[in-house]
Amino acid sequence: MSSTTLAARRDRAFGAGAPLFYNTPLHIVRGEGVELFDPEGRRYVDMYNNVPCVGHANSHVAEAMARQQSTLNVHSRYLHEGIVAFAERLTALHGPAIESVIFSCSGTEANEVALRMARMATGKSGIVCTNATYHGNSEAVGKMTRIGTGQNAAGDVRAIPFPEMLRPLVPGAGEDELREAYLDRLRQAIRGLEEDGTGFAGLIVCSIFANEGLPDVPSGFMARAAEIVREAGGLVIADEVQAGYCRSGQWWGYDVLGFKPDIVVTGKPMGNGLPLAATAASRTLVEGFRAATRYFNTFASSPLQAAVGMAVIDVIERDGLAANVATVGAFLKSALAERKGRFASIADVRGHGLFIGVEIARTDAAREPDMDKAVDIINRLKDRGFLTSNAGAYRNVVKIRPPLVFKQSHAEEFLVAFDATMADVDG
Ligand code: PMP
Fold first, then answer.
1. pLDDT (tens digit per residue) in 202-222
2. Which domain of life is it from (predicted)?
3. What is the CATH classification number for the domain harbouring 419?
4. Pocket, ligand 1, Cβ cutoff 6 A
5. Ligand 1 centre and the CA of 344: distance in Å?
6. Which of 266, 287, 318 is where one domain is finished?
7. What is the pLDDT of residues 51-75, one digit of tens each?
8. 339 and 199 in one domain?
9. Which DSSP state fits 56?
C-alpha cells in the first residue's frame, strides 16, 4: 500500500489532525536495535526514540514479555513475587530516601500521582513548574504545559522561567548573579502561592530540562532550588521520564544537575515500549498517598510490567549501556560542538549523554531562534536516513536522543549526513 493511501486511511480512521513527523510522513514496518526500515527495506538510523531504550525488537525483552504473558498476567490485588522484586530493584537504583513505588502506565499518570502525593503530604495545593515544560496530557498535569510566566498569576500552578545560560534572564549577568536571579523567581512564585492562600506543595522539574531544550543551567541552581523548596515546606518532584534510565550516561538526571528529589517519576524507557511508569518516594509519602486514595490502576503493577521492566534493567546492566551512553554521547557532543564554528546556523550545542540539542539560530546579528531552519534540517536528515526531531522553548533545537544502544559507528555515519545537510542549508 502506498504511503499516500495509508495516510488517507489514517485520517479517516483517526480523524485528521493526529500528528505525523516530517514533510513526507515516514512509513515504517520493522525495527532492530537503532535501525528502522520502510516497506522497501530502506534503512533509517533512529536518533529520536528514547522509549525503545535497549533497542527496537530487543530479543531479551521480547522473550521475557512472551514468557510472562503465556504464564500469568493479572492485576495487582494478588501476591506475586515478580512485581515485588521489580519494585525493590527499581527503588535500589536510587539513594536510600527512595523506598517505595506506585506503578502506573504512563508518565502522565505517574506525574499525576506525584502531584497528588505532594499535595496530600503538605496539605497545600500550589505547584511550581517551569514556563516551557511538558509533564503530560491529563487535565491536572496538562495545566503545566508551556504556560508563559505572564499568564499564571492565579490558580494552583505557577511557572518560573527555566534556567538557562544562552538567553539569560539577566543579559550580561555572571553565572552566580544569574543563578540568584532564577532562584529569586522561584522564591517569588512560592511567596505568591502562600500570599493568595493556595499554599505551596512542591516544585516539579524535568531533571535536565529536556522539553525546554536541554539548557546549560547556572551551576548549583537545582541544589539551591531544592533547599529553597524544602525551607518553604514543599517537596521536590524530579520528572525523570526523559532524563532517567541512563539517558545522560548516569542512571538519573538528578545526579547530573546535582540535587536530591523527594519524589521521582519515571516512564518512557522503563518498558522498552510496554506501558510502564512509576512514582517513587519515601515509604511515608507513598503510604500516606495509598491510605488517602487506595490507588488502583488496572494494568499497572502486573506480572507483565514486572517481567518486562526487569528485562530492560537486565540489558542496561548486562550490556554496560550507561558507559556506552557516556562515551558515545561525549564523542558526538564534542564533534557537534566543533561544528558550531563551521556552520553559521548553529548557535549552541548542549546536552548530557545521548541527549543532545543543536540550537539553530538566524545568522544575522540578532541570532534569533530559527525554528523553520531546524525543521528543514530535520527533514533533510531524514531524507539522508537519520531520524531526529525538534524541541525546546522555541522549537529550534535539533533533538538527538537515540536508543541507548547507539554506537560510535552510528555517530560517525550521522556526522557525515549532518555535515552534508548543514552545507545544504548554510551554503
Ligand atoms: N514528562 C516528560 C518530561 C515528558 O517529556 C513526557 C512525554 N513527552 C511526559 C512526562 C508524559 O509521558 P506520557 O506521554 O507517557 O504520558
1. 999 999 999 999 999 999 999
2. Bacteria
3. 3.90.1150.10
4. 106-108, 111, 134-136, 206, 210-211, 239, 241-242, 267-268
5. 33
6. 318
7. 999 999 999 999 999 999 999 999 9
8. no
9. B
